[in-house]
Write a structure and sequence with these properties.
Number of strands: 11
Pfam families: TctC
Number of helices: 12
Distance between the termini: 23 Å
Radius of gyration: 20 Å
Protein name: Secreted protein
Keywords: Membrane, Transmembrane, Transmembrane helix
Low-confidence stretches: 1-34
Shape: globular
Helix content: 40-55%
Mean pLDDT: 87
CATH topology of the largest domain: D-Maltodextrin-Binding Protein, domain 2
Strand order of the largest sheet: 2-1-3-10-4-11
Structural class: alpha/beta
CATH architecture of the largest domain: 3-Layer(aba) Sandwich
Family: Belongs to the UPF0065 (bug) family.
InterPro entries: BUG, Bug_dom1
Strand content: 15-25%
Number of domains: 2
Oligomer: single chain
CATH superfamily of the largest domain: Bordetella uptake gene, domain 1
Length: about 350
């Protein structure tokens, strides 16, 4: 049986892609009704000043990357007394864009949603009605990086081996990853190597754990996956890391610092899975400045620095016009990558 292609998702997936753009309207309505009471109670009980009462919106279910970010930020704000009352609200669905729709309707500034490349990926791939441009960027905080890995016993021992095999036969290597962002990384590498992205073999997985199993059971040959998901398997000896998708080598243990970037290996790909915080469009300039000050205080604390190290994150602060331009550039870049995938 031939492997599924990046342009040929399973039938149930194609159906889901076709319907998500319209279904999201109904889902957003349900979510807004379900969360409205929470925001009303929060406002009545604690006021709407960002220092006295703050809601951190995680536009995903508990346990994922966005949820982890917000709960780590919540703990930092509480521990250091930066905010009097801070709660995390999970608003999952449609690649995070339902959370965007909820945030866009909040009348008060004391709501911060985490978002980033995942939102842009969803809105480009699915054509969702809610877009990251509907809310107000406050500050980019950090970046997460993908690493390229293979099974420990794989004959592929370097990115040169991957390049040679892939360029000779684009369908010869089965790639996998834990989400749409990982597929973007693969596509960017393919374009850099001159491999037709529409002819590659990509096996989508539901999260990093499933992608790892695809490697270990021989279903897939290579993964582009999040560092926090994949690297523990490298440490255990089950996987071999070939490179990190970052501008510079990562800091950490000697083993982490020894991982070469793709650019060092002649593959100029540095796409990152970044995390930024967004406020409702109702937020004033003064509100945004206060939120930026609050975030700046949080990321300087020992607790947050420990969080960054524990999760293999890298601090990447940005705000203002620079951040606005960055989001536009990322939107253009991701749109181009999806066009190359034939989606």
């Amino acid at each position: 049986m031939s492997q599924p292609k990046a342009t040929d998702p399973p039938d149930h997936a194609r159906s889901r892609f076709r319907t998500v753009g319209t279904a999201v309207f109904a889902v957003v309505a349900v979510v807004v009704i379900g969360t409205a009471s929470f925001f009303s109670i929060r406002s009545a009980s604690g006021g709407t000043d960002v220092r006295s009462n703050l809601s951190l919106i995680a536009p995903a279910a508990a346990g994922g990357g966005w949820d982890t970010f917000q709960r780590e930020l919540q703990q930092t704000l509480r521990t250091n007394g930066i905010v009097n009352n801070v709660q995390v609200v999970n608003v999952p669905g449609a690649g995070g864009t339902i959370g965007v729709g909820v945030l866009a309707q909040q009348p008060e500034a004391n709501n911060l949603m985490v978002g980033g490349s995942g939102h842009i990926t969803a809105q480009v791939q699915f054509g969702t009605p809610s877009r990251i441009q509907d809310v107000t960027p406050v500050a980019k905080v950090l970046e997460e990086y993908d690493i390229i890995a293979v099974p420990a016993d794989s004959p592929l021992e370097s990115m040169d081996d991957v390049s040679d095999a892939w360029t000779q036969n684009p369908r010869s290597l089965a790639w996998t990853g834990g989400g749409s962002f990982d597929q973007l990384v693969m596509t960017d590498i393919a374009l850099e190597l001159g491999v037709p992205a529409s002819e590659t073999t990509y096996i989508p997985s539901d999260g990093g754990g499933e992608a790892i199993q695809a490697l270990l059971n021989g279903t897939a040959d290579v993964t582009a996956g999040g560092f926090a998901d994949i690297y523990p398997q490298v440490e255990s000896g089950r996987l071999r890391v070939l490179g990190v998708v970052a501008e510079d080598r990562l800091s950490g243990s000697p083993e982490i610092e020894a991982i070469p970037t793709l650019a060092e290996q002649g593959i100029d790909v540095t796409i990152t899975n970044w995390r930024a915080l967004f406020a409702p469009p109702s937020a004033t300039r003064e509100d945004i400045e206060e939120l930026q000050d609050l975030i700046a205080e949080a990321v300087e604390t020992p607790e947050w620095r420990a969080t960054v190290e524990r999760n293999y994150w890298r601090e990447a602060p940005m705000h203002g016009e620079e951040l606005d331009q960055y989001i536009q550039d990322e939107t253009d870049r991701i749109t181009t990558l999806f066009e190359e995938m034939g989606q």
